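Bench notes, afternoon.
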Amino acid sequence: IMSARQIDLNSDVGESFGNYKLGLDEELIPLISSANIACGFHAGDPSVLRRTVVLARDHGVAVGAHPGLPDLMGFGRRAMEVSQEEIRDYVTYQIGAIQAFAIAEGVRLQHVKPHGALYNMAVRNPAIWETVAAAMAELDKDLVLFVLGGTDRDDLQAMGARHGIRIAFEFFADRAYNPDGSLVSRKTPGAVIKDHDLAAQRVRKMATDGKVTCVDGTDIALHADTICVHGDNPAALQLVRKIRETLAAAGVDIRAPQTFL
């Protein structure tokens, strides 16, 4: 019998902007343990930022920065030609914004998870992870960097050690995986798993056995510290509830990474 395992549930929140309301943050935040809060570049605005920090704090949910590329219209999902220096400055600026609201509301920033195209660019070009890690280390060595689990594990651990920051490996609850540990492209049919029972069982298998079944039917070893769940529509919220139930039944504790990493 495996000992009790701890795992984090993270989700992207704070994505409303001005008069535009996105997501179901009030319903979702009580169900997760770490909140990735948009910092104003791809979504969010100062009032939304504060409101989301308060919501997370009031539900005992750890607060994280979700920095993206400066692309409100494209929601940070479009790759941009940017230098490492620009990435460093974008990330520093956005972490600083959320750090200020966190301090004002009496909480400490736990983590940083790049958003959208910036995250995908880092998966393809690990020099970007390095730039993000360096920016984080200059601001607060206690910050945890969320990176994609399944690929380059030793390299990313070594990078974290170089900068003196902790790394949390992430698993996507509703995404299909390739045998090399990468995510199946969203352009491919079946890349997003819509069946709640199947997604919850995949999460349980990863959390308890450290394995994920890939698109070709093979199993690969995959360790993750945090599971990304999306709760931006009623069906997604049901999936988060199902994952929580399944993990609880398997004896897995849902907690923020700062408590176990």
